[in-house]
From TrEMBL:
The keyword DNA damage does not apply. It comes from Pseudoxanthomonas kaohsiungensis. It is found in: Cytoplasm. Its EC number is 6.3.2.4. Keywords: ATP-binding, Cell shape, Cell wall biogenesis/degradation, Cytoplasm, Ligase, Nucleotide-binding, Peptidoglycan synthesis. Residues 118-313 form the ATP-grasp domain. This is D-alanine--D-alanine ligase. Gene3D superfamilies: 3.40.50.20, ATP-grasp fold, A domain, ATP-grasp fold, B domain. Pfam families: Dala_Dala_lig_C, Dala_Dala_lig_N.
Length: 326
């Protein structure tokens, strides 16, 4: 993939953005990651002359928007229930007519719910691992028998690998369900795909090169994502034909879930067959030193500061003089 795939930024004058709120922090389980992401985005936008200011959480944003303190919002909240990825804050901004980055109400709400995202994909014939929805406190053994071990057990609506367990044998099932059940919402049991873990960043209407994730340990968990320094990120993750296939699949999955603007689609590649399986969509991916969308953007010559600028551009109408659109 060459730089020609991405046209130059639409604007060069930072005043076109007006006063920008960088929405971060919040009250979800991913608060600390969001604060880290937000600080990086704030620094990047300010380095390019944008009048950007940090805002911690949805109540603070609501107060600021009602007082008409900001012209648009760069949303880097992560997660649900006070995070900004479940459609709630998007509805607030739509209601107040304030443009913002990332997916709208529908895409945000749907992608936050892994079970319903899979239902949409399956209805369109897009490949995703077989799964079972778990009622709290029951049906676990039966679901595991039906899917066949190994399986993944996880909350349906958490990110950053929070509450996720890999179950290789029956005795591990109880602990896996207990961990996932600490988080609100439904539980999801999914057939484990043995193979390569890949992720594809989406920027505008294009897929970035895939990244193949090779953790030092066996699993790419929260520690490997945010703490460990020995996780390998291979970009592009596949050969040319593989890149074309995974890019097209990721874009189709992103659009099917009603998502727009920017995001990341996580995919598994079966080691034996080479088949690709969709796992989930992240509508406000991390922007930390370990994060994957910036790594992929770098591969096509888009540095971190320019990436932030391009994402913010999505919150400006094609004719900025004619008013902005979310």
């Amino acid at each position: 993939m060459s730089m020609a795939a991405f046209p130059p930024p639409r604007f060069t004058d930072p005043t076109v953005f007006g006063r920008v709120a960088v929405l971060m922090g919040g009250t979800s389980s991913e608060r600390e990651v969001s604060l880290d992401s937000g600080r990086n985005v704030l620094e990047a936008l300010r380095a390019h002359g944008v009048d950007a200011h940090g805002v911690d959480g949805i109540p603070a944003l609501a107060e600021a928007l009602l007082a008409k303190k900001f012209d648009r919002v760069f949303n880097i909240l992560h997660g649900q229930r006070g995070g900004g990825e479940d459609g709630v804050v998007q509805g607030l901004m739509e209601a107040l007519g304030v443009p913002y980055t990332g997916s709208g109400v529908l895409g945000s709400a749907l992608a936050m719910d892994k079970i319903r995202t899979k239902q949409v994909w399956l209805s369109l014939g897009l490949p995703t691992p077989r799964y079972a929805r778990l009622a709290r406190g029951g049906g676990v053994q039966a679901a595991a028998r039906e899917l066949g071990l190994p399986v993944i057990v996880k909350p349906s609506s958490e990110g950053s690998s929070v509450g996720v367990s890999r179950v290789l044998a029956d005795p591990d099932l109880v602990a896996a369900v207990e961990l996932a059940a600490r988080y609100p919402g439904e539980l999801l049991m999914e057939q484990m795909v043995i193979g390569d873990e890949l992720t594809v960043g989406i920027l505008g209407d294009k897929a970035l090169p895939s990244i193949r994730i090779v953790p030092k340990g066996q699993w790419y968990d929260y520690h490997a994502k945010y703490v460990a320094e020995d996780t390998q990120y291979l970009c592009p993750g596949l050969d040319e034909a593989g890149e074309a296939e995974i890019g097209a699949l990721a874009l189709a999955a992103f659009r099917a879930a009603g998502c727009s603007g920017w995001g990341r689609v996580d995919v598994m590649r079966d080691r034996d067959s080479g088949a690709l399986y969709l796992l989930e969509v992240n509508t406000a991916p991390g922007m930390t030193s370990h994060s994957l969308v910036p790594k992929a953007a770098q591969q096509v010559g888009i540095g971190f500061e320019e990436l932030c600028w391009r994402i913010l551009e999505q919150a400006v109408a094609d004719d900025p003089a004619g008013g902005a659109a979310g």
